[in-house]
């Protein structure tokens, strides 16, 4: 289970320190996703973001896949679990820009304000997560942590229930969510009915054996 971790203070690196860290980073990369330092001091590289979305996202119908509910030209559907996306970004890109780029790549029509980017790291057999502020720079965090995802990984989630900005949802989106919830409720109800029918049948069979005349 994830443990919430306090945000660590930002440490500013000199140009020489950045150059040294990029050289060290590239020497440790195993997937060819290296960083490049430009003459202006800005560096570019790749980050991988795992999508952990519990609620359905809204996309254009032509781009939709999986379980969905239609409304005009948009579709609400659940993104498959464990979906990981790779983005090429620069050291100047902020968390908010990364979220917007991810949604654009998936043709998601939802308001970016509904989502938050988290960093996840493993330490002493525990998993720590920390919600990143909109102004933080993910590529800097990747550089400092190194290329190993067990040291640091990024996760896109919805805001916690208490933080959801419901005004960011449109009426068609909310109606789609209700349709999907109704469908899931009916599916779970049928599963429960079948389970208890089997249980009842076994009880009746057992009772029949007990009261069967000898």
Automatic annotation (TrEMBL):
One of its GO terms (molecular function) is zinc ion binding. It comes from the Eukaryota. GO terms for biological process: signal transduction. Its main location: cytoplasm. It is found in: Cytoplasm, Cytoskeleton. One of its GO terms (cellular component) is microtubule. Keywords: Cytoplasm, Cytoskeleton, Metal-binding, Microtubule, Phosphoprotein, Zinc, Zinc-finger. Residues 163-210 form the SARAH domain. InterPro entries: RA_dom (IPR000159), RASSF1-6 (IPR033614), SARAH_dom (IPR011524), Ubiquitin-like_domsf (IPR029071). Residues 71-161 form the Ras-associating domain. Pfam families: Nore1-SARAH, RA. PANTHER family: RAS ASSOCIATION DOMAIN-CONTAINING PROTEIN 3 (PTHR22738:SF8), RASSF (PTHR22738). This is RASF3 protein.
